[in-house]
Amino acid sequence: MKKLILVLLLFLLLVSCQQQGETIESDAQVTLSDTITAQYTLPNDDEDEEQEVLEFTYRLPEITTLNDDNEPTGNAIPAYSIDPTFDFENSEPTILEAHNFYAVDELDTAIKDRLFWIAYYGYGYYELSESGLSKLETQEELTQEDYVVFHGDFDNNHNLDNDINWYLAAQELIWESFSDEDGNPYEASFKTNLSSYKEAILALVNTTYQTIPQFGGSVITINQSDVDNQTIYDLSDQNQKLHLFNVFPPKGLEILNIDNYDIEVQLLDYTDDLALSFVRHDRFESHDSTIYHNIDNQRFITFGNSRLATLATKFHFEMDDNLVGVSLSITNIAQEDSNIILYGAQYEIADDIDFSTNVVKSTVSEEGVNARFNNLTQETFYLRQISAPEGYGLSEEIKEVSVPTGASKLSITFVNELEVIDPEANNNE
Q1: Torsion angle, CA of 294/289/284/168, rounded to 10 degrees?
Q2: Where are the beta strands (DSSP E) in 48-146?
Q3: What is the dihedral of CA 330, 336, 338, 344, to 10 degrees?
Q4: Per-residue pLDDT, 170
Q5: Are 253 and 267 in contact (CB under 8 A)?
Q6: Are 315 and 235 contacting, i.e. CB atoms less than 8 angstroms apart?
Q7: What secondary structure letter does DSSP report for 216?
Q8: Are 122 and 167 in contact (CB under 8 A)?
Q9: Is residue 176 within 8 Å of residue 114, measured between CB atoms?
Q10: From CA 361, how far away is CA 339, in angstroms rounded?
Q11: Is 316 in contact with 310 (CB distance < 8 Å)?
Q12: Which regions in the chain score pLDDT beneath 50?
């Protein structure tokens, strides 16, 4: 029943994106590659015909943007098909409309993220060998010999022919997540048995949030003498996943050395929300995750790296006298570009979703300093934005926040859309 609800929601999402999703690219087309083909089957559910299995030839869909003359520009981006009944034999390019996948609100972000991570590992997944780790430390160029696991890397065009089953397995998993126009899950499957690949991808998806750098907690307590002495800290990643992440120090911290799974960092100054950020390595060729469709509602998805930045994990440095209760920091990003950090927003929390009990307001975010709450004692509360950054509309999202046991620091992200100004409304004033 849960799966049926999921696929119904996904179907409604794709229909609604044509009506109200923000269009981010109106001139794009899908072409079908001749380099990657595979056979798959799909049950025929037509009540007027005898039950039979239909056979199709799959050709890798590739999305490319068009210039003002409707000519393709740049490299084609590999995409995933949403509808397995699409005619992959049609060689004529199809013109598409596009919408930001994460900007459509009808689907829970956790479901979107599940599809994102399926694609993340289906496009290519690897771990560095000892030689790769050594080269990473000295910023030398990596080669194929520097990887111990290599599942078809689209980014660098390595081993696509040998490891294409990883991509096809991800395609099957994505088909299984969607439904046909009657709300029934697709049962498309490639003739090659991909069950072991699908299990491996799902195992990686299910452990994604556990496989992050871990330094014995998320906060290190400091005092003013540590700042005055510019103390050096040696941090060791207990999960040994540091090589999968980029490390970004803020003003006030300097990374002296990264050696395999160890980081040596020096405290230069204390500022609000002082933390090292760890962001997974980019895996996709595009920035945003995007849904494409044509007038016949033939649909495709590409995935981008912007989501990785919003999922950054942090290791915080907190002054000892600030560690009373829980501290909540709120990052504000622009919908049109998740790399744009917005400031000037304020938030409030309450014990109830009506915001009538124990209402507390945050600080107002300023350039380089997030809005924040200090000394929170609630185990569960509701959070909303009460003033938006200049030029952006107020977010209508209400977040229910549960504080993990033992946590002293939380980070949450809000997304704001550009404010739409109606010239007729201004003329009537």
Answers
A1: -60
A2: 52-66, 72-78, 80-81, 94-100, 126-128
A3: -30
A4: 93
A5: yes
A6: yes
A7: S
A8: yes
A9: no
A10: 26
A11: no
A12: 1-9, 11-12, 16, 18-22, 423-429
Q: Is the dihedral of CA 331, 332, 335, 336 positive or negative?
A: negative
Cβ–Cβ < 8 Å for 391, 342 = no
Amino acid type, 322: N
Between strands 326-334 and 409-416, the pairing is parallel
Q: For residue 342, what are the contacts with CB-CB under 8 A and spacing of at least 6?
A: 332, 333, 334, 365, 389, 392, 416
pLDDT of residue 162: 55
Handedness of CA 57, 292, 90, 32 (dihedral sign): negative
Q: Is 299 helix (H, G, I), strand (E, B) or coil?
A: strand
Q: 47-67 burial, b if ≥16 CB within 10 A, otherwise e?
A: eeeeeeeeebebbbbbbbbbe
Burial readout 153-178 (b: 16 or more C-beta within 10 A, e: otherwise) = bbeeebbbeebbbbbbbbbbbbbbbb
For each of the domains in the chain, give its residue range(s) and CATH number, in order of start.
Answer: 2-108+160-201+284-306 (no CATH), 324-429 (2.60.40.10)
The model's pTM: 0.69
The contacts of residue 316 (CB under 8 Å, 6+ apart) are 218, 219, 220, 273, 274, 275, 409
Burial class (CB in 10 A: 0-12, 13-18, 19+), 247: middle
**What is the spatial distance between Cα 233 and Cα 96, in angstroms, rounded to a whole number?**
52
What letter does residue 102 receive in the DSSP assignment? G
